[in-house]
Amino acid sequence: MKHLIVLALGCLSLQAAWSHGHPAPIDDSMPDAQKIRFCERVRDHALQNFYNRDKGRPMKLFVEDGSDGARITNHIIRRIYEEPQISSPKKAEAFGRATCNEMMGTKTAPE
């Protein structure tokens, strides 16, 4: 009986650990689903460029082809390199997500 209780508690704690920190799945019928996914990718670019800046690597911008994607991503990359206030990975992610959502006009993503 003890083993069954320990096993059940272990499963519950494992389930809680796996579900922590992952955004909820985005329903494709949402009008902003593509914008939310795009902003998640931009957030990843912001984080990578924060690490690049900290390691002294040069800024790598996307070729501007008139699309919103390259324009928004380049804007965020430039700001990360210019602003020393973005001093941690969490700040870089938050800045990238917030700026993208603002520029794309999306509602806040469900988390």
Contiguous uncertain segments of 5+ residues: none
Question: Counting H and I runs of at least 4 residues, what is the number of helices?
Answer: 4
Beta-strand content bin: under 5%
Gross morphology is extended
Assign a percent range to the helix content.
55-70%
Give the number of DSSP strands: 0
Cα separation of the termini: 37 Å
Structural class by sheet pairing and helices: mainly alpha
Characterise the protein shown here.
The protein is built from four helices and no strands. The protein has 111 residues and is mostly helical. Helix 2 (33-54) packs parallel to helix 3 and helix 3 (68-82) runs antiparallel to helix 4. The longest helix has 22 residues, at 33-54. The mean pLDDT is 79.
Quick structural gist:
The chain is built from four helices and no strands.
Comma- or semicolon-separated keywords:
mainly alpha
Layout of helices and strands:
Blueprint: H1 2-19, H2 33-54, H3 68-82, H4 89-104
